[in-house]
Amino acid sequence: MTVPLLSASALGFSTAAGEPILQDISLDISVGDRLAIIGPNGAGKTTLLRLLSGMALPGAGSVSLLGRPIAAMPPSERARIVAVVGQSDQPDRRIEVRDYVELGRIPHAGRLSRSAHAALVSEALERTGLVALANREMGSLSGGERQRAQIARALAQEPRILFLDEPTNHLDPRARGTLLELVAELDLTVIAVLHDLHLVPRFATQVAVLQHGGLVAYGPAPEALSRATVRSVFGIDLLRLPHPHEDREITVFDIPLTTDIGANHP
């Protein structure tokens, strides 16, 4: 039997006051999966991402990385497998892009020559389209460029899994799609909290839908994003329609005019 790259079993988490945030969450992530974690505000999406990445410890259940308890891994070892781009990351505005990306090599300090480290930083800049901006200060970048720099820093870690917490926040619609296209082409396992449902079908291979701290749907994107689930959790309609100009299907999310139409249909 193949061991999942990342596995969560019966995860639970509560606030210091004992208020439950997540209950009984179980997931198996395979190599190459792109998992989108979605749900309404307050559903526990960011908390789940923090537990899966080892940034927080669960109050119940466990997370295993490569078959080992992630909580038992030294932080330096975990950082060579897992990279996290958080929604509240605030790089020093004065640091140059290349120097910022080079921070991703810290977990590998002393393991390679200086020239090998530099080559990996250059590769991360190239893969994210930032070579021309390498000497710019982070504070001079646009929102989309800054997000690409954060992903480049994560790539410099040479992770097996890339975690993204709402990476498209504050980006215009075109930049959102471009960023996720870039991530999808990285040949990495990706776990991303996404707020914009329109981005999910073309990006995710797997979807986890959270509501009130529980997992209400989990599986391949077309199955987890059923019309019934989307209506129940988000109060909107999902329609799959043929593209008018291309040979592919498009997914449309629409606010219904009534509260009952299609409620009982998959």
TrEMBL record:
Alphabetized SMART domains for the sequence: AAA
Q: Which family does it belong to?
A: Belongs to the ABC transporter superfamily.
Pfam families, per database record: ABC_tran
Which InterPro entries has this protein been placed in? AAA+_ATPase (IPR003593), ABC_transporter-like_ATP-bd (IPR003439), ABC_transporter-like_CS (IPR017871), P-loop_NTPase (IPR027417)
One function term, GO molecular function aspect: ATP hydrolysis activity
| The keyword Transport belongs to this UniProt entry's keyword annotation | yes
Role of this protein: Part of the ABC transporter complex HmuTUV involved in hemin import. Responsible for energy coupling to the transport system.
What keywords sit in the KW lines? Answer: ATP-binding, Nucleotide-binding, Translocase, Transport
Q: Which SUPFAM superfamilies match?
A: P-loop containing nucleoside triphosphate hydrolases (SSF52540)
Q: Quick check: keyword ATP-binding in the entry?
A: yes
What is the protein named? Answer: Iron complex transport system ATP-binding protein
Superkingdom of this protein's organism: Bacteria
- Annotated ABC transporter domain residues: 6-237
Which residue spans traverse the membrane? none
Q: Which organism is it from?
A: Hoeflea marina
